[in-house]
Every structure is written in structure tokens, then in C-alpha cells.
Amino acid sequence: MSNPDALFTGQALAVDPVVAADGTVVLKAAGQQIAVAGAGGPSGTQLTTDYTTLTGYGGQVVAAGPARTKLRASATPCRRITVKALVGNTHTLYVGLAGVTTDASNSTGGFQMEPGESFTFGIDDVSKVYIHGTAGEGASFAYEL
Q1: What's the pTM?
Q2: Taking the domains of the chain in order of start, what are their residue ranges?
């Protein structure tokens, strides 16, 4: 048995199917090999291992706006964060890094979120994430290690 086509392999994705010399199939994710039960059978392959743990959460409101506001003032290590625009917001909220703006600039324009929308992404520190929007509106967030 040979390795599967380049559906996953060779495309720099986080999960790769790997076929060992003895024909067993494993999934390789984040450098870890995970056995695949039922490989080749009618049941679908399932990856149920997640290497992050919910570490903390919080909320932030734009005090004076429109302005940029850090989600956390001090360094807070993480691997992944989910930011959700507050449901009560009445304007678009923008999420980005230190230079985030409320426009469509290629270099500084933030990720636009309407009230109630969320965005999950990888980052190493919560304090690197900013919101930009109207005074009194904001976001809640949860981060993982």
C-alpha cells in the first residue's frame, strides 16, 4: 500500500495521512501520530485529538472611539484565540494586530465582524490582539494553550 494522493500530503497542512511499511495508516498532526481505526472500511476516518486546552477568557470594550483597544494589557501566552463581537454591538468591529484600522487597507485593515460573529485564529500572545470600533462596543474572547 502506498501513501494517499496529495490530497493532504505535501500541501503544508496540519494533518497528514501516513501509511507505514506494514500497511497500517496513521494520521500525523502537530508532530504526533494518531492511529486510525477502520481505515479502508466504510466508517470514516476521525481525528478526535486536540492538543490545546481552554486556558482563559475575558471581554474588552472600546473605551473611546473609534479607537484601537488591546484585548489584554499584559503578556498572556496562548496558541489559539476565539474573538466574538458582542451581540449588542450596533456597528462593525475590527480585529487585528497593533496597527489595525477600520478600513480595507491591505496592510492594516482588520478582520470585520458584525454583531455576534466570531473569528478563531492561532497566535502566541493574547496581548498582541486588538479590536477597533465604536466607543462602548466590544468583544468577548477565549484563548487556549
Answers
A1: 0.66
A2: 1-49, 54-144
